Amino acid sequence: MKEMEIDLEKINHLEANVNTGTLPPPYCYAYRLNVDFKEEAIHVKYSLTYLDRDQMEEEDILEEGFTMEDDFHWEGEIPLVWKKEINEMLKKTSWLNVAPSDGYDGDLELKIIDTSGNENHCLIPTNRVSWEYFLQEMIQAIYEVSDKELPLIIRYKEIAVTTRTLVLQPVFSRRILKIQLVENGNEKEMELPWDRLKQLLKAIYLPDYDHDKAIKVEPVKNGKFLDPGEALWYKFDEGIKNPGRKSDAVARLEKLFDDFF
Q1: Would 124 disulfide with which of 96, 142, 146, 153, CB 3.0-4.6 Å?
Q2: Beta strand pairing status for 29-37 and 11-19?
Q3: Where are the alpha helices (DSSP H) in the chain?
Q4: Coil, helix or strand for 87?
Q5: H/E/C letters for each residue in 233-261?
Q6: What is the pLDDT of residues 18-42, one digit of tens each?
């Protein structure tokens, strides 16, 4: 393996191949993401395939919460804002050029083609975890544009002497993090830096949510409540619990929302 330099100005195609074959079925999957840089948009081909499911009975796959049609293939365009973000990722990445003789059998490989048709195969980013997260954000953008999934909307509501509500909506396709605040009938809308999203989602999904105590309609009684994007509400300290005895995840989550007002 050796470090290599890539001329970012000449790149016009990026291909990512990810394989989670170390996981057992029905969880293991592979996907390929082909990205072409156009003048007005990013052209994308995305292919997701679940692996080794022929080793399982259909009933066992369904019991794990999957379907028999989880594979997904899509081709289309995502907004041009992604070109800038891809370039930023490339700029801060060191690469290892791996030849077949090196015996690399990793789960993330990239290929880059420049405007002259030159190809760099089997590129391994040293910041692999950052690339995995970045690619997942791009896949969420694809799911938004293709209508495969509904937009993620997180709602917080506090009912006491006054009522305060917060709506958090990340728009992955445009990389915009929208916030709507309402307090005493006064509404305020703003946008947060996109790089805050990862921290916010980590805080929101770190606690345990008791589905047996989920509320199906918007709360009207006193308390603090959170809908983590499920269209179900959970009350703090009843439906939302710390993941361990020494954890203060719930208290930190409450403070996170209090700080917005």
Answers
A1: 96
A2: antiparallel
A3: 58-63, 81-91, 128-145, 197-205, 249-258
A4: helix
A5: EEEECCCEECCCCCCCHHHHHHHHHHCCC
A6: 998 789 999 999 999 999 998 888 9
Q: What is the pLDDT of residues 128-165, one digit of tens each?
A: 999 999 999 999 999 999 999 999 999 999 999 999 99
Task: Summarize pLDDT for 159-195 with one digit per residue, the tens.
Answer: 999 999 999 999 999 999 999 999 988 999 999 999 9
Looking at the structure, tell me whether residues 159 and 137 fall in a common domain.
no
Tell me how far apart the alpha carbons of residues 187 and 163 are, in angstroms, rounded to a whole number.
Answer: 12
Structure tokens at 99: 């030849």
Instruction: Give me the domain span that covers residue 68.
Output: 2-145
Number of structural domains the chain divides into: 2
- The whole-angstrom separation of Cα 15 and Cα 112 is 6
